[in-house]
């Protein structure tokens, strides 16, 4: 008997209604659909997951999500979840691959990926699959299989990977071939206009432009830093209010 799949790994994280729209980044992601792989590689707290979640909600393409963790370093478990994620938007895909994964203890990745690639080729429309927290994957066989898949990926599927570090994949090769769109920590940092919108609209702090600039300089637009600074300002404002009651 196979273990049941954890369905929450397929849930697209919610986006707050007060979120600052990152139109410049969303446009880059939309343009990236001309290639095979989208990689967002940046430290924790940079907004990778939020950006991808927001993007999927505004795109017209069918999309799926898979949140990875250390337990997914088993190749059979990883590819079982991978196919199951694809099935969230196309229920009939990957039956042959899943059957092979269940019947063989250590199948070669070519044997089960070729049927999957062929099925993806037969799809009538394009779709997106997000692999979140890919830094959790350290198993070399998974990286090798992912390289094989991406090297032969049909145009019907676009993979988006979010990771705290660059994965051990042939990124330079795909970049030269215009098959890779990559966003890094510098790309994800808030501009001054985005910081102003975050502080005064999302957090409703009504700070002066001079104060916003000071926060921007101090945090360098790092999202987690902006959130901490905004919370600190909000707490100080509340404390001052209580003192003067």
From TrEMBL:
<protein>
    <recommendedName>
        <fullName>Orc1-like AAA ATPase domain-containing protein</fullName>
    </recommendedName>
</protein>
<dbReference type="InterPro" id="IPR027417">
    <property type="entry name" value="P-loop_NTPase"/>
</dbReference>
């Amino acid at each position: 008997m196979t273990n049941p799949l954890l369905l929450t790994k397929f849930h697209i994280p919610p986006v707050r209604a007060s979120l600052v729209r990152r139109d410049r980044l969303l446009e880059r992601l939309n343009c990236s659909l001309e290639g095979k792989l989208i990689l967002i590689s940046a430290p924790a707290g940079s907004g990778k997951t939020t950006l991808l979640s927001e993007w999927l909600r505004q795109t017209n393409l069918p999309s799926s999500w898979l949140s990875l963790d250390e337990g997914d370093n088993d190749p059979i478990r990883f590819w079982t979840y991978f196919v199951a994620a694809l099935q969230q938007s196309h229920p009939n895909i990957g039956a042959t691959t899943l059957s092979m994964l269940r019947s063989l203890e250590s199948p070669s990745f070519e044997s089960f990926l070729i049927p999957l690639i062929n099925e993806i080729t037969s799809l009538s429309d394009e779709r997106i699959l997000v692999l979140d927290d890919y830094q959790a994957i350290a198993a070399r066989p998974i990286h090798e299989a992912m390289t094989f898949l991406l090297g032969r990926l049909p145009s019907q599927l676009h993979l988006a990977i979010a990771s705290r570090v660059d994965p051990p994949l042939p990124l330079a090769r795909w970049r030269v071939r215009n098959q890779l769109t990559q966003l890094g920590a510098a790309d994800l940092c808030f501009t001054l206009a985005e910081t102003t919108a975050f502080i005064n609209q999302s957090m409703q702090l009504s700070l002066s432009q001079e104060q916003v600039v000071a926060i921007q300089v101090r945090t360098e637009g790092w999202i987690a830093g902006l959130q901490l600074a905004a919370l600190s300002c909000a707490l100080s404002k509340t404390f001052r209010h209580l003192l003067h009651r």
